[in-house]
């Protein structure tokens, strides 16, 4: 294990010596290449940050919309139940309950869409983290 590490150390020292012994124009070319790579990564990071912020804003808007829709659905379901009770009596309570269940199922579908957006945001954040690590490494 020590021999292997010593060999790797010698290889790295050789690479460093090679870089030191390179003519100045090659060093400058390598520096320019690294700067260009860094600039590209910074640009990708900035784009990713903008997209992440945009998705976060959109998620918050959808959450507010979902909450107001759920509130409206509950209100409409109550109104419908009251109206049906007045018109037809107890036998139609089942129909109102079924309609309320349908509204509830629709709300669940909306919640699934929100969960998908949250997952997408998490993926973008992970990608941002990885890009930052790569930039730091460079």
Automatic annotation (TrEMBL):
Keyword Coiled coil: yes
Keyword field: Coiled coil
GO CC terms: cytoplasm
Listed GO biological process terms: cellular response to lipopolysaccharide; positive regulation of canonical NF-kappaB signal transduction; regulation of transcription by RNA polymerase II; toll-like receptor 2 signaling pathway; toll-like receptor 3 signaling pathway
Keyword Coiled coil: yes
Lineage top rank: taxon: Eukaryota
Protein's recorded name: TNIP2 protein
Organism of provenance: Sterrhoptilus dennistouni
């Amino acid at each position: 294990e020590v021999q292997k590490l010593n060999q790797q150390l010698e290889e790295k020292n050789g690479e460093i010596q090679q870089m030191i012994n390179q003519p100045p124009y090659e060093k400058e070319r390598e520096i320019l290449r690294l700067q260009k790579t860094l600039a590209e990564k910074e640009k990708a990071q900035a784009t990713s940050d903008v997209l992440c912020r945009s998705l976060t804003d959109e998620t918050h808007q959808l959450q507010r919309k979902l909450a107001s829709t759920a509130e409206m659905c509950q209100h409409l379901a109550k109104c419908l139940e009251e109206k049906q009770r007045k018109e037809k009596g107890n036998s139609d309570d089942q129909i109102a309950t079924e309609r309320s269940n349908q509204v509830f199922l629709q709300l669940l579908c909306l919640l699934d869409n929100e969960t998908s957006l949250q997952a997408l945001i998490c993926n973008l954040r992970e990608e941002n983290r990885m890009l930052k690590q790569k930039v730091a490494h460079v």
